[in-house]
C-alpha cells in the first residue's frame, strides 16, 4: 500500500518545479544573448551600429547635424545675370563647342548698357552741350541746398568741372568691348593658369555717389586662346567707370572675360575700401571688403580655386 505524501515530499516536489523553471529561464536568456551576439556580429561586418534600446554598440548614434554631407554651394547670383542654358553641340570635323550668343555683350559691342546709354553715345554737339547745362544747373542747386554760395570765387566753375568729371567717371557705359579687345586674341595652345594681380580700381558707389577704391586680381585657364595682358585691366576699368557696387563689378568682369575668351574657367577677386563707410555712417577707416566670382573649372575644382587664391595672396 503506497504511502501518502507528507509535508517533506511536497516541499521537495516544489523545489524541483522551481529548479526546472529557472533552468528554462536560463535557457531562454542564453538563447536571447546568442541572438543578440549574432546580430551585433552582422552589424559589425556591415559597418553599422547595433543598438540595445537607445545605446549603440559603437557609441552613441550621431545626430542629424553631424551626418550632413559636406558640399560646395554655388554663390547666390541675380537670375537676370545668368546666361541661358548652353547646349554642347559638336561641329562636324572640328570637335569644338558651340556656345549660345552672349547676353553679357550686346550686338553693338556695349556691355550691359543702362537706360539712356545709347542716347548719350549718339548725342551730337548740340545735345551734348544741353546735357552739360542740365548737369551744371543741378550741381548749382546742390551747392545752394548745402548752404554754399555758388557765385563765390572758389565755386564759380565747380558746377561745370563736376559735370565733366562725372561724365568721365561714368564713361564705361559708352565703351565698345570690341574696341577694348582690338583683336588681341591669340591661339597659343596654353592651358595653364594666367593671373594679372593688383589691378587698381576706382569706381563710384551707386548708393551714395562717393568713391570706392581697391585692387582686383584676375585669373583664367585658357582652352586654346589667350588675350593680351593689358586687355584684362581695360575690361576691369570699363566696368569700374560706372555707378557700381563691388559685388556686381566683380561678377561683371568675370562673366565678360568668360564670354570673350571661352576659357576653361575664370576667377576674379577684388578687395577695396568704401568711402561711404569711411566718411559717413559707421566711419570704419580700417575695414576692407573682399568679393569674388569663380566660373568654370575654378567653381568646380577646389584645388584650382585654392591655387588661385594662394597665388594672389588671399590664403595668407
Automatic annotation (TrEMBL):
<feature type="compositionally biased region" description="Basic and acidic residues">
    <location>
        <begin position="75"/>
        <end position="85"/>
    </location>
</feature>
<dbReference type="GO" id="GO:0005737">
    <property type="term" value="C:cytoplasm"/>
</dbReference>
<keyword id="KW-0378">Hydrolase</keyword>
<feature type="compositionally biased region" description="Basic residues">
    <location>
        <begin position="34"/>
        <end position="45"/>
    </location>
</feature>
<dbReference type="GO" id="GO:0003934">
    <property type="term" value="F:GTP cyclohydrolase I activity"/>
</dbReference>
<keyword id="KW-0342">GTP-binding</keyword>
<feature type="region of interest" description="Disordered">
    <location>
        <begin position="1"/>
        <end position="129"/>
    </location>
</feature>
<dbReference type="GO" id="GO:0008270">
    <property type="term" value="F:zinc ion binding"/>
</dbReference>
<comment type="pathway">
    <text>Cofactor biosynthesis; 7,8-dihydroneopterin triphosphate biosynthesis; 7,8-dihydroneopterin triphosphate from GTP: step 1/1.</text>
</comment>
<feature type="domain" description="GTP cyclohydrolase I">
    <location>
        <begin position="136"/>
        <end position="312"/>
    </location>
</feature>
<dbReference type="GO" id="GO:0046654">
    <property type="term" value="P:tetrahydrofolate biosynthetic process"/>
</dbReference>
<dbReference type="GO" id="GO:0046656">
    <property type="term" value="P:folic acid biosynthetic process"/>
</dbReference>
<dbReference type="InterPro" id="IPR043133">
    <property type="entry name" value="GTP-CH-I_C/QueF"/>
</dbReference>
<feature type="compositionally biased region" description="Low complexity">
    <location>
        <begin position="18"/>
        <end position="29"/>
    </location>
</feature>
<dbReference type="InterPro" id="IPR018234">
    <property type="entry name" value="GTP_CycHdrlase_I_CS"/>
</dbReference>
<dbReference type="Pfam" id="PF01227">
    <property type="entry name" value="GTP_cyclohydroI"/>
</dbReference>
<feature type="compositionally biased region" description="Basic and acidic residues">
    <location>
        <begin position="119"/>
        <end position="129"/>
    </location>
</feature>
<dbReference type="InterPro" id="IPR020602">
    <property type="entry name" value="GTP_CycHdrlase_I_dom"/>
</dbReference>
<dbReference type="InterPro" id="IPR043134">
    <property type="entry name" value="GTP-CH-I_N"/>
</dbReference>
<keyword id="KW-0289">Folate biosynthesis</keyword>
<dbReference type="GO" id="GO:0006729">
    <property type="term" value="P:tetrahydrobiopterin biosynthetic process"/>
</dbReference>
<dbReference type="InterPro" id="IPR001474">
    <property type="entry name" value="GTP_CycHdrlase_I"/>
</dbReference>
<comment type="similarity">
    <text>Belongs to the GTP cyclohydrolase I family.</text>
</comment>
<dbReference type="GO" id="GO:0005525">
    <property type="term" value="F:GTP binding"/>
</dbReference>
<keyword id="KW-0547">Nucleotide-binding</keyword>
<protein>
    <recommendedName>
        <fullName>GTP cyclohydrolase 1</fullName>
        <ecNumber>3.5.4.16</ecNumber>
    </recommendedName>
</protein>
Amino acid at each position: 500500500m503506497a504511502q501518502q505524501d507528507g509535508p517533506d515530499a511536497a516541499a521537495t516536489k516544489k523545489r524541483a518545479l522551481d529548479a526546472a523553471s529557472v533552468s528554462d529561464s536560463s535557457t531562454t536568456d542564453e538563447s536571447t544573448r546568442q541572438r543578440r551576439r549574432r546580430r551585433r556580429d552582422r552589424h559589425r561586418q556591415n559597418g553599422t551600429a547595433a543598438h540595445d534600446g537607445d545605446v549603440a554598440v559603437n557609441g552613441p548614434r550621431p545626430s542629424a547635424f553631424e551626418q550632413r554631407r559636406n558640399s560646395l554651394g554655388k554663390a547666390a547670383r541675380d537670375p537676370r545675370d545668368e546666361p541661358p542654358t548652353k547646349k554642347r553641340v559638336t561641329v562636324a570635323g572640328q570637335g569644338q563647342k558651340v556656345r549660345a550668343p552672349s547676353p553679357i555683350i550686346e550686338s553693338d559691342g556695349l556691355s550691359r548698357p543702362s537706360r539712356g546709354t545709347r542716347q548719350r553715345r549718339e548725342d551730337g554737339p548740340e545735345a551734348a552741350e544741353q546735357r552739360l547745362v542740365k548737369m551744371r544747373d543741378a550741381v548749382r542747386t546742390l551747392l545752394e541746398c548745402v548752404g554754399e554760395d555758388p557765385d563765390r570765387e572758389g565755386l564759380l566753375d565747380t558746377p561745370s568741372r563736376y559735370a565733366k568729371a562725372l561724365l568721365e567717371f561714368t564713361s564705361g557705359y559708352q565703351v565698345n568691348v570690341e574696341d577694348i579687345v582690338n583683336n588681341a586674341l591669340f591661339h597659343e595652345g596654353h592651358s595653364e593658369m594666367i593671373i594679372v594681380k593688383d589691378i587698381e580700381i576706382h569706381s563710384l558707389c551707386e548708393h551714395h555717389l562717393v568713391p570706392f577704391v581697391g585692387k582686383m586680381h584676375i585669373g583664367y585657364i585658357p582652352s586654346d586662346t589667350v588675350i593680351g595682358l593689358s586687355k584684362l585691366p581695360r575690361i576691369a576699368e570699363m566696368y569700374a567707370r560706372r555707378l557700381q557696387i563691388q559685388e556686381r563689378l566683380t561678377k561683371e568682369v568675370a562673366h565678360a572675360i568668360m564670354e570673350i575668351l571661352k576659357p576653361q574657367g575664370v576667377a576674379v577677386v577684388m578687395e577695396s575700401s568704401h568711402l561711404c563707410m569711411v566718411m559717413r555712417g559707421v566711419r570704419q577707416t580700417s575695414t576692407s571688403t573682399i568679393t569674388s566670382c569663380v566660373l568654370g573649372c575654378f567653381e568646380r575644382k577646389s584645388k584650382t580655386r585654392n591655387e588661385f587664391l594662394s597665388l594672389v595672396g588671399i590664403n595668407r
